[in-house]
Amino acid sequence: MKIPNSPVFRGVTTDDWIAMEKEVSMRRQKVTKGTVIFRQGEVIREIGLVLSGSVYIESVDLWGNRSILTHIKPGQVFAETYALTGSPLLVGAIAAEEGEILRIDLGILLHFRYSRCAWQAAVLRNLLAIFAQKNHILSGRIFCTSVKSIRGRVVTYLSAQAMEQGSCSFSIPFDRQQLADYLGVDRSALSKELGRMRDEGLLEFRKNHFILHRLSEERNS
Fold first, then answer.
1. How many Cα atoms occupy the beta-carbon half-sphere of 123 within 13 Å?
2. Which of 6, 73, 166, 179 is the most exposed place for a label (fewest CB within 10 A)?
3. Using CA atoms, how far apart are residues 109 and 24, in angstroms rounded to an integer?
């Protein structure tokens, strides 16, 4: 298997990768949309790396209310905090579409007997950077959901997406229900608010593609 195109393995050479494959438990998993990769409440030792497709990290409370926390794209990893600490998963990892996941045993990967291996030092540095980036992403969601109004949450999220993608015309990784789950609002109320914003000329949308107009003015109102 070739070295996956992922920040996790930045700085890992071909020779390092060959050595890793011999020592570390890594297995591929083909998934279809809706496949449960990691279940909320279980204890895991593996992390997941998206080779193709994408994954939703979601939380479901005791009453069945679902909330999407983040969207994991190809090259990105997930569940590393839980694999590292050994604590039960407070979230689940669900395939958002058909794809393939690389499951890596983090306990073996970080074992002290490999402390002199160049690949372990590289992976540790990369995981630290990933932890920092994910903290930034989760902070962004908290920023969205801390706004009281539905319109405020929509504007905050779409504004962040426009800045991230460098354009006021962009697609988001959620359908309408998933966006409602992510923002923590009712789907029907979200659809009505989007309709009102469209009627006011603030934005255009078709399915998950948006074009924003006068967003900065709306945010300041």
1. 25
2. 166
3. 6
Strand-pairing partners, residue 29, are 101
- Provide the angle, in degrees to the nearest 10, between the axes of the packed helices 150-165 and 176-183: 110
Distance CA 76, CA 89 (A): 18
Where does the pLDDT of residue 152 fall: very low under 50, low under 70, confident under 90, or very high at 90 and above?
Answer: very high
Contacts 24+ apart (CB under 8 A), 136-142: 137/70, 138/69, 138/70, 141/69, 141/70, 141/182
- The rounded distance, in Å, linking the Cα atoms of 198 and 195 is 5
- pLDDT tens, residue by residue, 159-172: 989 988 999 999 99
Where on the phi/psi map is residue 2: left (φ > 0), alpha (ψ -120 to 50), or beta? beta
Q: What is the pLDDT of residue 214?
A: 65
| pLDDT cut 70: percent of the chain above it | 96
DSSP, collapsed to helix, strand or coil, labels residue 215 as: helix
Going by pLDDT thresholds of 50, 70 and 90, the confidence category of residue 180 is very high
pLDDT at 217: 44
Distance CA 147, CA 132 (A): 24
User: What does each C-alpha distance from 85 to 56, 146, 182 come to in angstroms?
Assistant: 21, 28, 26
